[in-house]
Amino acid sequence: MEYMNKSIEEIHEALKKGKVTSKELIQESLKKSHELQEKCNAFVTILDDAKEQEVTEDVLSGIPYGIKDNYSTKGILSTGSSNTLKDYIPFFTATAIENLERHGAVAVGKTVMDEFGMGGTGTTGHTGIVKNPWDTTRMCAGSSAGSAAAVAAGVFPYATGSDTGDSIRKPAAYCGIVGYKPTYGMISRYGLFPFASSLDHCGALTRNVKDAAIVVDAMKGKDKYDMTSWDSSNINLASSLTGEVKGKKLCYIKELCDISSYPNASATLKEHLENFVNTLEKVKSLGIEIEEVSVDKTLLNALASVYVVISCAEATSNMSNLTGFIFGPRGEGENYIDMMKDYRTKNFSPLIKRRFVIGSYVLQKENKDRYFHNAQRVRRLLVDTWNQLFEKYDAVILPVGSGPAKHLDGSIDILDKDTAPLEEHLQVGNFGGFPSITIPDGFIDGLPVALNLTGACYDDANVLNIAYAIENILGYKNQTSKGGE
Ligand code: GLN
Predict the structure, then answer these.
(1) CB under 8 Å to 346, separation ≥6 — which residues?
(2) Is 382 within the bounds of a domain?
(3) Atom of ligand 1 at shortest distance to CA of 162?
(4) Ligand 1 touching residue 124 (CB < 6 A)
(5) Residue 473 falls within a domain, yes or no?
(6) Is the pTM of this model over 0.70?
């Protein structure tokens, strides 16, 4: 009997009834981790000596899970998938992981990501590319690539992720699972390697909405080590999932969903958008009202550039502590500047270096107002636009990306001008710190596609409940790639 492909509640039930032990679950999960490693390269580290936990009333107790490798874990290699930290073993554990451990959760692996979370392909980690378990010629998207691959392959029911632009929600979409990032600050970022602090969120990848609620309920909480965290003890996400959604209101953005916005639309993009429109009809059958709204195209077209400017600027500043003196292998040279140069030159991948060049450029005194401050102004316009929508609607519903997982060929890092806003709109969720969840919405050419719901800050329970109701009628709950055969 396999358990790791089941929901958290089902696994908990089996543990309580004594049908399986925590030790057996760990064995199953480790075996599957090694199999997936051969096939998809999802892990930086597999924790073969993971210890069983006592099974209590806590629904997470004794159940294995995975941790993205940018969460600090005491005594366990934590690389951020970067050569700069290839042998870094932290002396403390991230608060979100400590919280899961307090619930009796058992970590069995640290998962591969794009280096320090920068990237959307799952191909830039120092241990190699992550392949999609549904089709190993395809990418998982990034940066939480290994977490998505492992949850989709049924290695464990959930894994942690982080999301600065879409890094939980895009890989979840490409791997046919659920990806949820809660409101900014609901989960402490203490111990999460910083990428762009004003955009970084912790969150979870699971195979159904209820599991996402359960996991984030355990991860969240105010933390004295993260001053942006807030007290959410009055919120219980899992128990808010009533499925009652009659009278809720959603909107979708015409400029992103209308095929006429894409003069060179591929057959796949057409199918993706048609699939989304069909889904809207099903959603309406729940008694949910859906309206089309219009958003200024110039603003939507600016989205990707705003993200690049702000995220690169913050990343450049955050990562200036990676000098090779405090963390990582020390560089060679006659003096400290040469040693630092040597370390950074040898160990950062080209993608990161490009981003540091952009970040340094936009932060330079002469350029700061023109680029960085202007990007902040446009960020504000985007956030205001979405907040105005949330005055009238419970959430914005949109398709994720322009279709299913892309091929692992040379063209993966290049954005097409026409589809850029469709590929990048999830970033608004980071600009505003909005709760945002991606759920599976069918298949194109046998590969999963997804939709996203994004709502107002602090309205997580409502957004999740709507996602829960939609998930129930769409019928792609708890799906796995079945190993991708
Ligand atoms: N794809 C985006 C990037 O390249 C998002 C990454 C993220 O959310 N960490 O930065």
Answers:
(1) 83, 331
(2) no
(3) 9
(4) no
(5) yes
(6) yes
